[in-house]
């Protein structure tokens, strides 16, 4: 796509605003993990870190523009290493700075180990209303290969606690394409997980990322034929169990989609606070979209002599179509053309050529008001994205 053909509109509609909070510590680093996490050594400086999180958020308030918070996601790392009292202090402090939208979704990631599961009720009392449990597998052998510190029984126990609690919803995180995984292994994990009846299931394929133990010592992963069989039969199993796929890796019961993820994929705005947290924010004065990231290491982040912000850049105007569709086309719902206009400030003529190519290749369909990714487009999503580069 050529930059000169891009014309900014005079105004845009600001998207909903979410907040991502990063807790960087883990008991140990998993061999597949490329997230900004740090092995815990000693006690977490909980009070100091929460104070820094709130100061970090205070520095972001000029980007709020009177929008209430649509959702909050506390991720990591292992956020459930923070006490329930600490989470309450954090959430109370956030609400004092930015009003909460009515029925705000507040998600927190948690490991299914006994200590974390026993804290669930405290987190709910603190204001958390959705918990995402990092199960990954329900087979001991696979958990050992993944470097997880819980066992299947602890994962099942955590799901039961979540079911019986006052949570609005909870998610089970599952992976497939694991080392030495057979089709029967993957289907066992899914069947066992659906019997626990979580309102939401995240089911994503293991990929080998740089700067991980698996990258330096690659494990033996299933071949492409096995991976495709896992996806096809796993998708069928989930559908029969009453789960609807709404995103490439997201399945839920009717009406139980993760609202934070929906805002992210719909090209909403989000503030990121905490070590290495990323944010995407729209500047209403000129429609520029900024990507911001925070200092990665806890020591640097909590150093009072240094800023929280590590880097910031405005997305180039001719890169906005790729940025928009890379997010939006992950969702299986139709994409409103008006959202493209409102959230990028661009005319539809800017993307007429790549849209036409996508339709001719069978990757996309079009109506007067919406675009819809086809089944073929879902399978070859990267090829679809490449058309907008």
Provide a concise account of the structure shown.
With 389 residues, this protein is α/β, with parallel strands linked by helices. It has 2 domains: 3-263, TIM Barrel (Alpha-Beta Barrel); 334-389, no CATH class.
Fraction of residues in β-strands? 15-25%
| Name of the CATH first level of the largest domain | Alpha Beta
Cα gyration radius (Å): 21 Å
Largest sheet composition? 9 strands, mixed
Envelope shape: globular
What is the architecture of the largest domain at the second tier of CATH? Alpha-Beta Barrel
- Helix percent reads 25-40%
Which structural class matches the secondary elements? alpha/beta
Q: Please tell me the total number of domains.
A: 2
Number of strands: 17
Uncertain runs are 2-10
Strand order of the largest sheet: 9-10-8-7-6-5-4-1-11
Give the N-to-C terminal Cα separation: 6 Å
Query: Tally the helices: what do you get?
Result: 16
Mind telling me the CATH superfamily name of the largest domain? Aldolase class I
- If you consult CATH, what is the topology of the largest domain? TIM Barrel
Mean pLDDT: 94
